Amino acid sequence: MGAFHGVTIAIVLFGIGVLGLVIRKDLVIKLLALGLTNSATILCLVSLDSRTPGAAPILVPGVEAIVDPLPQAIVLSAIVINFAILALALVFVMLLVERYHTTDSARIERETNAEEETWS
Amino acid sequence: MELVLLPLIRFAIGALSMGVGRRSRFLAVLAHLCDAALLARIALLLARGTALDATLGGWADRVGIGFSGDLIGLPIAALIWGLAVAVSLHTWKDELRAYFYVLLHFLIGAAYAMVFTEDLFNAYVILELLTLASFLLVGYERKPRQIWASLRYLFLCSVGMSLFLLGIAVVYYHTGTLNLSALAAHVARAPAAPWIPLAAALLVGGVAVKAGIFLFSLWLPAAHARAMPAVSALLSGVVIKMGVVELFRLAGVFPLDLTFTVLGAATGLLGMLYALQTYDMKKLLAFSTLSQIGYLLIGFGAGSQASRLGALDYAVAHGLFKALLFLAVGQAVACVGSPDLRALTLNRRTIPRGTRIAIAVGILGIVGIPPFAGFAAKAVLESGVHSLFVHAMVALISVGTAASFSKLLPLLSVRSAARCRGATVSAYAWLGGGIALFLPLSATLVPRSILSASWHWPAYLEAGLALALGYGIHRILRGRSFRLPQRVFRVEEGTLAVVAGVLIVFSLLRFA
Fold first, then answer.
1. Phi, psi of B25 (to 5 degrees)
2. Residues on chain B touching A116 (C-beta within 8 angstroms)
3. Which of A2, A10, B135, B289 might form a disulfide with A44, Cβ 3.0–4.6 angstroms?
4. Among B124, B491, B499, beta carbon nearest to A105
5. Percent helix, percent strand, percent coil in chain A, to nearest 5
6. CB contact under 8 A, A119 and B343
7. Quick one: CA dihedral B449, B452, B455, B457, positive or negative?
8. What is the value of ipTM here, to two decimals?
9. Which SS3 state, helix, strand or coil, does residue A102 take?
10. Which residues pair with A104 in a beta bridge?
């Protein structure tokens, strides 16, 4: 049953992350929410896809039954990718803060749109 | 072997470019030559009927990453190569930093890998790589509005890719494989299994964010309109197509015909309406990308061999003329200093002649005047469509395209003495040549029987009528403005739309 507890928690976390993306205006909090959705996805993948009951897939003396190692290999890449995305997004948020002195997404949206309007 | 070398050489040259500074444009030429040789060899092998399938690293089929060269992959790979050459010609004299070329090579290499991969998780990694490369490219000039557009792109794509990964989790739980052909066999054995709609909705919804489909890809107009022209051309010609290619591949596994028709119709219509209402010329191109992607999906969802080949053909054609239009309009906008149609029309004398000829050729392609690219591909697509409703949708989108591109006509009306640089002209000529010679090129992809069946008088009649109607609508709408809601393009609405879109796709698959 452990797998399905993991999946339930993952779905709840994913929902919280999406909610954070939708209702919070602060860009840094939005990024945290994005990180939460990504981590929830990884939790879901690990707990759903360890299909056979067993220990972590590290073969040491005494360990006989291990879970399917492929999902675990997969999430390693996914974690690295998500880390890269968050890091780069933070750099871009920093560039925006240098220009507008705010992390409020609604204000940045207004300012950038105003720049476009002034062309016409 | 060749399939694997193609992306790897790009990645290697991308890494090398970091070390050579501004000379990296010469390395790019080397990369293009290597690719041309490899692509020619792949085409030769495929023509001889040699199977190019490979499982990487000698793993068993269930866990190894499968690569397969086939008819979906090759034309799109050729398009990617053609656009890479065009972009490198167009930016030849721009003194861009090595950073640009590094990202360019990573983007192109990832795109090559995308068209040949058979593995769902490999597709996920490549899509994320494409996201990162295009995210950095959109913000290349460091203008705040570009940075904000690319951040919005990153937010939505990251949510989409999370959904895709959830889809992968469901698929792996139920089948124990991530290989698309093994998966197709699984689904064919038990087509009514209850997990199929859920997995398909998550996978399709996730990719749709990258594929430029309305409701999912609300980041697209800002990112495509605010990036620099060479980057917009790549985004519209290559990156969007990668999402579409993955959707085509998923259609080989899951029963997605109805979903594609519905999503395609929605994308086509909404993209067309937004294109009609905007006077920002770069936004016009971005919205018309949406409506053209609708075309591709409708064609692929119609389900016959001819319409699928036509959709694939149209993907290549769209890549060519949209890239040309983005490069040429971007040049015009740079000359005038504003993307607004009125400013462009007032200052049209400062736009170089070569640029205006390029815009004209792009318009000939996109509105579907025979015998240029748009018409040639559209005729094949439509010859395979049998439902009257779908046919009407396709015709309606053609009319809308003609109406929105009629806005550009005043730019072409006067003479001008300004000239553009040789490198820029050669980029235009390269893409324009592709548009003009599209018919003989597409004869290598589409079988002769389908091609000759598509060239009959109703196709000409329809093309002519669509043009006339479109121009009429343009005349009626001229001087009137209507505004559609712009709030939907914010991150918040975009995220909600992605979640809602996944639910819509799920209910289409589950209940219809």
1. -65, -30
2. 145, 280
3. A10
4. B491
5. 75, 5, 20
6. yes
7. negative
8. 0.93
9. coil
10. A26
Instruction: With 0.90 as the threshold, say if the pTM is over it.
Output: yes
Assigned token pair, B439: 């018919």
For B66, the 3-state DSSP assignment is strand
Number of Cβ pairs < 8 A linking chain A and chain B:
119
Give the Å distances, CA to CA, from B353 to B89, B229, B270, B363, B411: 18, 18, 33, 15, 11
Query: What SS3 state is found at B340?
Result: strand
Beta strand residue intervals within chain A, DSSP E: none
Contact A14 B162 (CB under 8 A): yes
How sure is the predictor about B271, in pLDDT bands with cuts at 50, 70 and 90?
very high
CB contact under 8 A, A88 and B176: no
pLDDT digits (tens, 9 = 90+) for B407-466: 888 888 777 767 777 788 888 888 888 888 888 777 777 777 777 777 777 778 888 888
Of the candidates A18, A44, A88, the beta carbon closest to that of B495 is on A18
Q: Output the pLDDT for position A120.
A: 45
CB B211 within 8 A of CB B243: yes
Closest chain A CA to residue B120? A74
- Tell me the nearest-neighbour CA distance from A57 into chain B, angstroms: 16
The DSSP symbol for A104 reads B
Residue pair B431/B82 in contact by the 8 Å Cβ criterion:
yes
Question: In degrees rounded to 5, what are phi and psi of residue B455?
Answer: -100, 75
CATH topology of domain A2-117: Helix Hairpins (1.10.287)
Q: Which amino acid is at B86?
A: A
